[in-house]
Amino acid sequence: MTNLLLLIPVAIGLGLLGLFAFVWTLRSGQYDDLDGAAERILHEDDEY
Q1: Which of 9, 15, 26, 32 has its CA 20 to 30 A from that of 1?
Q2: In this structure, is residue 19 part of a structural domain?
Q3: Under 8 Å CB-to-CB from 23, ≥6 apart: which residues?
Q4: What gap in Å lies between CA 46 and CA 14, rounded to an integer?
Q5: 7 is in which domain, residue-wise?
Q6: TM segments (predicted)?
Q7: DSSP per-residue codes, 27-44
């Protein structure tokens, strides 16, 4: 029983940390251009 008193707050804390990280990536624009990276790898750059 004493293990649950420790594990439940730790699990809730880790869940909130993951949620915070996900919201931070949404606000910083990580998911704005999903097709750009996939298309950039197919085209050669002539900048050399």
Answers
A1: 15
A2: yes
A3: none
A4: 46
A5: 2-40
A6: 6-26
A7: HTTTTS-TTHHHHHTTSP
- How far are the Cα atoms of 1, 3, 10, 42 from residue 17, in angstroms, in the given order? 25, 21, 10, 36
Block residue for tokens 């900048």: 47
Residues 6+ apart with CB under 8 A from 31: 25
CA nearest to 14, candidates 1, 43, 46, 6 = 6
Looking at the whole model, is its pTM more than 0.70? Answer: no
Q: How confident is the model over 2-15, as a mean pLDDT?
A: 95
Number of domains making up the chain = 1
